[in-house]
Write a structure and sequence with these properties.
two-stranded antiparallel sheet, 4 strands, globular
Length: 85
């Protein structure tokens, strides 16, 4: 199982939508959800190309505590199932 924590979601969204849009992050735009959605689309495409079947979840809540502990209050934002045709 892989766990990927995006640590610069706000910066990525700022780069994509510009300065004015950067001010709206947190008010109108959920930076983490937007970046995770884009990553899920890319992963889904790459997995299909490699013949990998998987379930990909975008969740809100888990936090890494140091290098060896994961705190898991979990709320699933989105789920995708990748299957080969």
């Amino acid at each position: 199982m892989l766990i990927i924590e995006v640590t610069n979601a706000r910066e990525v969204v700022r780069q994509r939508i510009g300065r004015l849009g950067g001010r709206l992050i947190g008010k109108v735009v959920d930076a983490e959800a937007q970046v995770e959605k884009a990553l899920m689309q890319e992963l889904e495409s790459a997995f299909r190309d490699f013949g990998i079947e998987a379930r990909i979840y975008s969740v809100d809540g888990p936090q890494m505590l140091g290098r060896s502990h994961l705190e898991i209050p979990l709320q699933v934002r989105e789920e995708r199932q990748v299957k080969q045709s």
